[in-house]
User: Fold this.
Amino acid sequence: MDLETESSALPPEFAALGASLSDGLTTMALDVDPDQRHQMLAYLALLKRWNRAYNLTAVVEPREMVARHLLDSLSLTPWLRGETIVDSGTGAGLPGVPLAIIAPEKRFILIDGNGKKIRFLRQVRRSLELGNIEPIQARLPVRLEDVPQLPVPDLITARALAPLSQLLEWHRDWVDQGASLLAMKSRGVEKELFDLPPAYNVEIIELKVHGEVARRCLAIVTRK
Assistant:
């Protein structure tokens, strides 16, 4: 299999999901144009294809990928602010790639320590012509002095990456300089609040994700 050569045409199993994706976006009150919807489905098709060799995700059923990967990631859209977003521990590009598609005016820096995942994201950038994503291979915690091209971000996103106290420890330098940490969580997040230092504010917001029955919430951590 030639992983470097990709077709712009959607495989039938993903082309058939256009209506399902549109219904989910409408339910979540997200305005996404047809070209962006096509990019999102093309991203899922790439993800499934590369997953055969690189084991990027455990979710491979196309309809489930729409809910668990696209719509779940896009539930953060109302809280996007500023110009520069770091997606920490991005893995296969979640939530960074779907958010970059819907917000082309923003810069998304996708950080992960796994070289195969970063190689996949570089192919995503080429195939989808996503000029606003920058995949960077680096281990956490990432320090500004270790990666000179990294600016202080406006936002840091993290999806099912680590407990809040660990996330804050990894990204404390940025949060202390004004960045907001947006951590996507599920059940039990309230227990994690007790381990956070008192110098930080935490707001818990319930997320409504079309097609997702499990609890999804957002923890926003900022410096007081």
